[in-house]
Amino acid sequence: MSDLLERQDAPPPTEADALSPSVRQVGRRSIPWIVLGAIAVLVALLGILLTGADRSAGVPLDPSNAGLVGGKAVAEVLRQQGVDVRPAGTLAEVRDGATDDTTVLVFDPDANLDDSGYDALTSIASAIVVVEPDYRALQRLAPGVRAAGGVAGSGPVDAECSVPAAVRAESIDPRPSGNESSVSAGGTFRIVDGGATGCFGSGDRYSLVTTTVDGRSVALLGSAAVLMNDTVGRSGNAALALNLLGAHRTLVWYQPGIADRAVTGPPDISALTPGWVTPVVILLVLVFIAAAFWRGRRFGPLVVEDLPVVVRAGETREGRARLYQRSSARLRAVDALRIGTLGRLASIAGLPQATGAGEIADAVAALIRRDRGTVRAILIDDVPRTDADLIALSDSLAELERATAAAVTPAQPGPTGRMDA
């Protein structure tokens, strides 16, 4: 294709008509971007389908969450009964919100609270209610209690204990909701040592265990579903929730966050470096900035200067031809050939450089005595569909240029047969 472009160096006429890519070619080039866009939309839709339900459900057992897994129903009823419900996300907020008559509800599914945190709760709260406690919570608050697996029974279970809150509830249904948004799996406990009371059990497995630690009442509730909006209305769930959490004037609804997680691992660089290192580093940075500013002012402003680089016309032509060939840009290639040919034909025919392509075609047809439609098709109208069409059109342009040059050149006289002295 580089041979086809070697006649494009002449200055083009300013009003020469150029052929534009067709809609089909533009669409063909846009196919990769359309495919990528479709893939991105598909991935976004899958993400929405996979995570949309969990996002719409909100934070489990949050007292401000009115969704299916939230705890707003219990919190609002407690407020109507005169209990001061105070949400807390850190241990510091628990300390600030606690009074001398406080129940602390702890729900920590991510195990953010460590042993020292549970020890601190026993010195803050008058009573502690731990929902779905993990192994660490059981070890710190109820060493004689062990986890015993999933919820016991297939329906409501009776209290069968003397705990006042359980007696008022009579029976509860601790099973998690069958709704997709429910995140509570529920659990039960087994008492392996004395000092604890089990309620709502089946055999030796209980959904509620009460005990005392450091003189504080501790209640272990095995299923968060008892407090959730979508299941609190079952059986005696609401009665148990209101009696456990409303026993004192203040309820601190505590959901430990990442701020309560213990910091572990080796010390960072700031703990290992001496105290004088930071001021010295800052001083060195300031000295470097001052020196750079001083030297920069001394050198003066930057001067932009063109580099004396020479690129051969043949290299430029071959490089452009390769780009046209790689992208199948036949229209651009033939436009470049036609622009060069039109400029040279205008010069050969003695026409101004500002002459339009149609006028040049008419003048050339008159000079070489050919059909105007044929000449105009070669110079303007024909569109190459294949590489073979492009080569044929290039040959036609070259032949047209040769014919025009021959038409304006006087005929050379033949030999006379005489010998000049």
From TrEMBL:
InterPro entries: DUF4350 (IPR025646). The chain crosses the membrane at residues 33-53, 276-294. Residues 1-21 are annotated as: Disordered. The keyword Membrane applies. Keywords: Membrane, Transmembrane, Transmembrane helix. Residues 64-245 form the DUF4350 domain. Pfam families: DUF4350. This is Membrane protein. It comes from Leifsonia poae.
